[in-house]
C-alpha cells in the first residue's frame, strides 16, 4: 500500500469508527443483542468455567473498493462489524490480542448462478465466525483478548471482484480500532459486561486463520502497514494457519513472524494440503529469521475445526488412514491445546513455560521428533531461526547434489541421487524427472527435494565439510526431513525404512547413530496404488509429507565436534530403498 493510499484508508477507518452509530450504509438495522453468549464446547466438560464467547455488534459501516469508479455501485461496500469476543475472567492485563479468521464458506445464500449476493439480511447470513466460539473461550481463559470477526464481506464474490487484501485490511482495522478505543477507556461497543478498559494490548497481536482465513492471516501479517505498526496495531507476533488454502498470496515467500501451519491429513477441501507451501517458502528465503513449523495431523478433516460446518466436500476414498476420521470434538480439543502452546511461545515471560510449550509442540530440537501431539497421531517439520541453524543441503537446485551449501563436495556411494524441483510436473512435461514421481505421489506443498535410491546395503551420501565450517560444538542436533517413496519397487510395500548418520572428524575418528525403530518420518505411507489412464504406473491414494528426523550430536561418541570433516547419510539398515530427502542441517535451541 502506498503512503497516499494508507493515509486515505487510515483516515477513512478512523472516521468510520466515530460514525458507526450514525452510519448510513444500506444495511437493515441490526437488532440482535450485543452480548449474546455462545456456550463453547469444552473437552473437560466444564463449559461454565470458561469465559463466554460474547456476540458483539459494532454497527454498520462502509469499506471502499478503489478499483471501482466513484459512480459504481460496487465502490462503497456495506459491511456489518459483528463477531465474537472473549476476555479473561481474571487479571487486569493488558493482555495480548488474538484474531481468529474464518474461511470462505458462503455467508449469504447462493443464487441460481451460485453466487452469494452481498449484502443479505442478517437473519439469513451464515455466521461462520460463530463456529470458533470454543476457541475464543478457551484462549480467553488462557489469558488473551480474542476476536473472531465476521469476514464474510472479505470472502464474498457477490459484490464485485475483490482485490486481494483490500477489504480485509479495512475490515480488521475497523474491528481493532473499536477494540483499541474500548481498551483506551473510550466508548465500549462490545458491551458493558465485556470489561476492556486497560486490558487489551494491540501491540502484541497474533493471528489464527482457518482455510482461506489462513491465507488471509499470512497476507495480513506481511502487509507493510501492519508490519510498521502505523495502523494502531501490530506488527503481528505470530501466525497459526489451520488447514490453510493458498488463494490470494504467494506462499513461497518469507514471513517476519513465527509461523505454524496445521495440515489436516484427510482434508476434503484443500485435498492436496497446499498449506504446506507456507512452510516451504520461508525455508528458501534468505531473509527468514523467525522459526516455522508444520504439523501433519492424522485423520483430521477440513471442516471439523469449525463447529457450524457440515462434513467436507470431498470424501477421501481409498485412504485407509482416513477410516475412521478423527472425532470432531477431539479435533477441536487438539486445536485448543496446540493454539494455547503456540501462543505461549510468543507471549509468555517464563522461559521454562516456553520450553515446555515447545516440547509439547514438537519443535524442541533437543528432543526426538514426535509421532503424536496432544494424544493424537501427528508428525512435524521444523525450521529453526536462521541464527540457530547451519544448512548443508536443502536442496534448492541440482547443484546441491554435487556441492553442498557449505562449499564441500557431495559424493554418492553406490546410490543414485536425483533433484526434484518444486511444483507439479510429469516425466512428459519435465524429462528426466521420473524418479520424482511428482504426478502420482502427492508430497504436500510440492517442495524441491532430493530422491535417494539404493539397491545394496552400505550405500552412502557423503558431505565433505571444508576447513572453517566443521565446528558443530555450538549446535545440539543434526536434523533432516525425509519420507518413503511408496511407489518405488525398492521399498517393500508396508515396511518402514531405516538409515544411519555418520560423523567423521579431521583426525579420522567416526561415529554412527541409527534412526529409532519405527522412526515416524520413515514409516511406509498408508494408501493404495491405483491404476491410472494418465500414467503407466498409476497413482498413490495417500499423502507423503516430508517430516523431521533428529539425531542428538551428543550421541556421536568419540569424535571432536569442533572439527568435523564429513557428515554422511548411511543406507546400511535395509537392502534397498528410495527416500525423498531435504533440509540436512545442524540446529540448536
**CATH homologous superfamily of the largest domain, by name?**
Alpha/Beta hydrolase fold, catalytic domain
Structural shape = globular
What is the level-2 CATH architecture name of the largest domain?
A: 3-Layer(aba) Sandwich
The whole-number mean of residue pLDDT values reads: 90
Estimated structural class: alpha+beta
What's this entry about, in short?
The protein is 17% helix and 26% strand. The chain has 589 residues and is an alpha+beta fold.
3D structure, described in words:
The protein contains 9 helices and 24 strands. It has 589 residues and is of the alpha+beta class. It folds into 2 domains: 381 residues, Alpha/Beta hydrolase fold, catalytic domain (Rossmann fold, 3-Layer(aba) Sandwich), CATH 3.40.50.1820; 199 residues, Jelly Rolls. The strands form 4 sheets. An 11-stranded mixed beta sheet has the order 1-2-3-5-4-6-7-8-9-11-10, with helices on both faces. Strands 12, 14, 15, 17, 22 and 24 form a 6-stranded antiparallel beta sheet that branches. The longest helix is centred in the middle third of the chain and has 20 residues. It is globular, with a radius of gyration of 25 Å. The relative contact order is 0.09. The N terminus is likely disordered.
Write the layout of secondary structure elements.
Blueprint: H1 3-18, E1 36-38, E2 53-64, E3 76-86, E4 95-101, H2 133-141, E5 145-149, H3 152-155, H4 166-183, E6 200-210, H5 212-222, H6 224-228, E7 236-242, E8 259-264, H7 277-284, E9 292-297, H8 328-347, H9 351-361, E10 372-373, E11 376-383, E12 389-393, E13 410-413, E14 415-420, E15 449-454, E16 459-464, E17 477-484, E18 500-505, E19 510-514, E20 529-530, E21 539-540, E22 547-552, E23 564-571, E24 577-587
Parallel strand pairs: 4-5, 4-6, 6-7, 7-8, 8-9
Antiparallel strand pairs: 1-2, 2-3, 3-5, 9-11, 10-11, 12-24, 13-16, 14-15, 15-24, 16-23, 17-22, 17-24, 18-19, 18-23, 20-21
Helix pairs in contact: 1-4, 2-8, 8-9
